[in-house]
Amino acid sequence: MKFQTNEILNGKYTTKKTTKNVFLVPFTLLLIMFPLILMRNTNESSPNISSVKNMNNKTETKGCDIFDGNWIPYSEGPYYNNETCKWMIDEQNCMKFGRSDEEYLHWRWKPNECELPLFNATQFLNIVRGKKMAFVGDSVGRNQLQSLLCLLSQVADPEDVSHKYTSNVIYFRRYFYADYNFTLGNLWSPYFVKSVDADPNGHSYNSIMKLYVDEVDEAWSSQVEDFDIVIISAGHWFFRPLLFYEKGQLVGCNKCGMKNVTDLAHYFGYKMALRTAFRTLNNLKNFKGVTFVRTFSPSHFENGDWNKGGNCVRKKPFSKEEMKLDGYFLQTYLTQVNEFKVAQEIASNKGLKFLMLNTTEIMLLRPDGHPNNYGHPKDTNRTFYNDCVHWCLPGPVDTWNEFFLYMLNIESNSSYGSKLESVL
Ligand SMILES: *[C@@H]1O[C@H](CO)[C@@H](O)[C@H](O)[C@H]1NC(C)=O
Ligand SMILES: *[C@@H]1O[C@H](CO)[C@@H](O)[C@H](O)[C@H]1NC(C)=O
Ligand SMILES: *[C@@H]1O[C@H](CO)[C@@H](O)[C@H](O)[C@H]1NC(C)=O
Ligand SMILES: *[C@@H]1O[C@H](CO)[C@@H](O)[C@H](O)[C@H]1NC(C)=O
Ligand SMILES: *[C@@H]1O[C@H](CO)[C@@H](O)[C@H](O)[C@H]1NC(C)=O
Ligand SMILES: *[C@@H]1O[C@H](CO)[C@@H](O)[C@H](O)[C@H]1NC(C)=O
Ligand SMILES: *[C@@H]1O[C@H](CO)[C@@H](O)[C@H](O)[C@H]1NC(C)=O
Ligand SMILES: *[C@@H]1O[C@H](CO)[C@@H](O)[C@H](O)[C@H]1NC(C)=O
Ligand SMILES: *[C@@H]1O[C@H](CO)[C@@H](O)[C@H](O)[C@H]1NC(C)=O
Fold it and tell me: Is the per-residue pLDDT at 27 higher than 60?
């Protein structure tokens, strides 16, 4: 891995004309320092599940479209905090670095047709007992993994067994829940396909990368057959300057600025990389798992580019009237959905299962959930950029795991033809 401590993310925003004229600034690159110290040690991990009521109701939830709904005010506190969860990393520990407004912690997703049950760690661990689950992708996927570790810490803390599987324990992590014989990990692969630095000056924020869009990145494909549940979760890296290769031939680029190379935009790279990733999962001989595809997670830079003072200082969600999925991000999302649908159909013919964690529009409404400048200490000589890409913990990203558990529940319990039924 060329850059051990840096992560370059990028994306772009456009919005429809809105009643309040919300304008989110396009951005092209974002550097987020990757944590060297990935966890703190604290003995205070007493659960506080007393504050969350279980709203699980099987008969009510069956068949409901949980992604169609609204963020509504919620007076109860979050599931955990930075004292009860020891798995939080500094970059997402917004409270630690002085974020004092708390309204962003008091919203819950309310589907129109039903209740979204609260996350029940015991129930989750019972469903995944004896299973292995991995997030494949970038640091936003890892953000969800970190949320899951915190949600589960109400009931159990795992052993970090990363070193048994890899020497690259920063990018490839594994946690083992002994009481449940459950393995949770991540396979780092921000492009899903083979990538190589193309810049003779080496890797930097805006250096160009070669992407072999039809060749899967073996860093994950060689390991994924071990896993019963896979969450495909990446996107922002595709906004970088990229050269696209197919069958080893240069076919185009994204923002390469070369006159003799066609700019196919990031959609092409994203489309082809997803196609390759999904094809790989559908064709791996021993892969019998269930694949979840988490849709693109919007970023929320306002008042400037990511590297020109752009920030995300809002303290409450957007209303649906204020913010519509549009332009660049809509196209990115649709690119993903199209590839998902093709893969899902191929999978179903092979007895495999693809499910969608349809989070894009929902998270578009949460400009208030990002670390902004609360992911690092204030008094330092280092240059930090505001993080309007990842999500504070606790925070709205916890909702992704509520969706995830909801879907696991339905799949593990559906009476016929369910792939999960056999693997879970
Ligand atoms: C735990 O829950 C109780 C009861 O709802 C609440 O008063 C308390 O503030 C919570 N503590 C934390 C750390 O969230
Ligand atoms: C969580 O799920 C477990 C097992 O399904 C159940 O026994 C428990 O009552 C649930 N917890 C809450 C708070 O509902
Ligand atoms: C579950 O939902 C159904 C249908 O909305 C309702 O009739 C029932 O009372 C609910 N059960 C519980 C335990 O809340
Ligand atoms: C995803 O959810 C949104 C609502 O949040 C909905 O408009 C959209 O149609 C859903 N997409 C798919 C592919 O189901
Ligand atoms: C947790 O957040 C509080 C502020 O709410 C901060 O004072 C404290 O240092 C943080 N603790 C840890 C362990 O991160
Ligand atoms: C633990 O789970 C693995 C599969 O993930 C299985 O092969 C193994 O037999 C299980 N061990 C026990 C003690 O149940
Ligand atoms: C495109 O032009 C650059 C110089 O500007 C050259 O290095 C490169 O080989 C050319 N690529 C192709 C595909 O012709
Ligand atoms: C920042 O740099 C200045 C000048 O080099 C130095 O005096 C100061 O101690 C540094 N502050 C920190 C927190 O490192
Ligand atoms: C599946 O459904 C059965 C009965 O409908 C229930 O007892 C069981 O708890 C459910 N399993 C899960 C994992 O929700």
Answer: no
